[in-house]
Amino acid sequence: MSRSIAVLVTEGFEDSEYLSPVDALRAAGYAIFNIDVEPGRIVKSRAEQLPLRIDLGIDQARAADYAGLLIPGGRSPGVLRRDPRVLQFVRDCDARRLPIFAICHGPLLLVSAGVVRGRAMTGVAQIADDLQHAGASYEDSPVVVADCQLVTSRTPEDLPLFNAAMLQLLAEHHPPL
User: Fold this and answer.
1) What does the mean pLDDT of the chain come to?
2) What gap in Å lies between CA 45 and CA 147, rounded to an integer?
3) Using 50, 70 and 90 to split pLDDT, how confident is the model at 2?
4) Which residues are annotated as catalytic?
5) What is the CATH number of the domain that holds 22?
6) 176 by DSSP, 3-state: which?
7) What's the CA gap between 33 and 165, in Å, rounded?
8) How far is residue 26's CA from residue 81's CA, in Å, rounded to a whole number?
């Protein structure tokens, strides 16, 4: 059983939507692997306060190696959704029924990967139409858990509830020994 979490992240990610979930995951014993198009790059947050080293390029990432997938918000998901390899990785994670966690603009990556139809979801209000047009049922709630697999949330204010739902879902998928 993997205790690793894939984090799809690139330039312009939202600081708190990366740091808070990653800190919660690390505290729960998960290893974090930052994934972007190229390994070894340093990417900066939206506020340019947090430089982040990319561990793996998307060509090196395999869904089977992870216990879950985190997609922080900010401008990062909008950039990543243009790369078909990233979209395939998201589809592979979804097909393996890995827990997927997306906050704020993060669900846009799920829309582009085509994995939202028929699912209840939330996200920042500006993407409600995108979610609905892609076939999701949009809920204006702090956290929405769908299909015992997908956790979505709206904004940094919702992070405590998002983190709790994320850790609960991981515990259900990977109970402690």
Assistant:
1) 95
2) 31
3) confident
4) 104
5) 3.40.50.880
6) coil
7) 20
8) 26
Contact assessment for residue 151 and residue 101, using Cβ atoms and an 8 Å cutoff: yes
Q: Which residue has the tokens 């059983």?
A: 1
Cβ atoms within 10 Å of 50's Cβ, excluding its own: 15
Other C-beta atoms closer than 10 Å to the C-beta of 120 total: 17
Query: Nearest 5°: CA angle at 6, between 120 and 54?
Result: 130
| pTM (2 d.p.) | 0.96
86 near 114, Cβ under 8 Å?
no
Number of structural domains the chain divides into: 1
**Closest to 125 in 3D by CA, of 137, 140, 135:** 140
Q: In angstroms, how far is the first alpha carbon of the chain from the final one? A: 10
Q: Which residue has the tokens 């739902």?
A: 165
Residue 143 has pLDDT above 70, yes or no: yes
Tell me the per-residue pLDDT of 33-53, one tens digit each, with 9 for 90 and over. Answer: 999 999 999 999 988 778 899
With CA atoms as reference, report the closest residue to 148 among 120, 123, 122, 110: 120
Residue 150 belongs to domain spanning: 4-173
Strand partners, 45: 13
Closest by alpha carbon to 109, among 6, 1, 15, 21? Answer: 6
